[in-house]
Amino acid sequence: MTLACQQLRTEDAFEQFSCILQESGARDALAYVLGLSDYRFIGIFCFAAGKANAAIHFDRANPSELTTQEVPDTATYCCYVRDSKGVFTTANALMDARLDGHAARNAVLAYCGVPVLTPEGLLLGTLCHYDVVPRDPEQLDLELLVQVASALQQGDHIPPYPVQH
After folding, report:
1. Which of 28, 40, 117, 130 is the most buried (most CB within 10 A)?
2. How would DSSP label each residue in 84-107?
3. What residues have CB less than 8 Å from 68, skipping those under 6 apart?
4. Structural domain includes residue 165
5. Quick one: angle between helices 26-34 and 3-24, nearest 10?
């Protein structure tokens, strides 16, 4: 795909995301972004007191499922995004030497995450696609994901860390 085509696709997708965000909210807008890929999950993960959990979550296979299980922050690939404040991807964790010994390696095989940052550089969380089977992260429009993360932050759409009941 040419750069001009990619930019047009990104611009159109972001415009659609923005409309859904305004009309239906962040979860539905993220479901739209997920639909541009073959990944199963998308979420905004936040960190608190050594734990990680999804503040917003969408599961293509179980759309009525609103939450994930809270885990130690080091048991998710989001910790790599958090620590670097940059993009982290893996197409197949079982084939990725960087993930040797990682707690999620056998459960979450594919991951692509970008940081959700304030203008001052404070990390609010991560926006990530992930799946239990290998997926090609090249299918994801990283420019779109960064724009989506920024729009969610700027519009104050990132909920606080989920409270466990």
Report:
1. 130
2. HTS-EEES-GGG-GGGTT-TTTTT
3. 43, 53, 54, 57
4. no
5. 150
Structure tokens at 9: 């696709």
Find tokens 């990530």 and name the residue.
128
* Spatial CA neighbour of 86 closest among 18, 158, 31, 142: 142
Which residue(s) pair with 115 in the sheet?
126
Q: Is residue 54 part of a domain?
A: yes
Q: For residue 96, what are the contacts with CB-CB under 8 A and spacing of at least 6?
A: 90
Residue that has been written with the tokens 């936040």 in this structure: 46
Question: Does 100 score more than 70 pLDDT?
Answer: yes
Domain carrying residue 119? 3-154
Mean of the per-residue pLDDT values for the chain?
A: 92
140: closest CA among 11, 38, 26? 38
Backbone angles phi, psi at 5, to 5 degrees: -65, -45
